[in-house]
Design a protein that fits this description.
single chain; about 160 residues; alpha+beta; five-stranded antiparallel sheet; 4 helices; about 45% helix
Length: about 160
């Protein structure tokens, strides 16, 4: 019975670790994928900053063509990886892309309406991924030690009968 319980706890623990890791690594994976997206010439149609519940974000509208088809992205953050900014930072980022300016943009070849004007990864993203991996490994080690200790605990004479 103890081995079954320990195995169940171990499986739940590993699933939790994998789920949290996948949820946290998802945005980083998107950022890395955008590095390989093809470029197109884009025209910025509208540029500004907007306050949201999380802070300030640049909000831009841009248009471009891929294979003869036209696309327009409206009111989006131009970055591949969005983090909350203060008003000054959001306005500075939107000022990099003034309305009427032609700039390169990168689009997802599988879904060309998905595009970004800025593929810069978030600050310290490599360190964040490293810390997350080390934390997941440490949690796995703690879970393995707990499972081994719990499963191998000697039975008392009354339990053996």
């Amino acid at each position: 019975m103890r081995k079954v319980l320990a195995g169940g706890i171990g499986i739940v623990g590993l699933c939790l670790i994998a789920g949290v890791g996948a949820a946290l690594l998802g945005p980083f994976r998107e950022s890395w994928a955008a590095r390989d997206w093809p470029a197109s010439d884009c025209e910025v149609v509208q540029s500004g900053a907007q306050e949201t519940e999380e802070g300030w974000e640049p909000r831009l509208t841009w248009r471009y063509q891929v294979g003869g088809a036209g696309y327009q992205v409206e009111g989006h953050d131009p970055r591949v990886f969005s983090i909350s900014l203060d008003e000054r930072e959001a306005r500075a980022l939107s000022d990099r892309f003034p309305a009427g300016k032609h700039v390169p943009c990168w689009y997802d070849p599988r879904d060309p309406i998905r595009s970004v004007l800025d593929r810069t990864p978030p600050p310290l993203s490599a360190y964040a991924v490293g810390v997350l991996i080390v934390a997941m490994m440490a949690a796995g080690l703690v879970a393995a030690i707990f499972i081994c200790a719990f499963a191998r605990r000697p039975r008392s004479p009354t339990q053996a009968e």
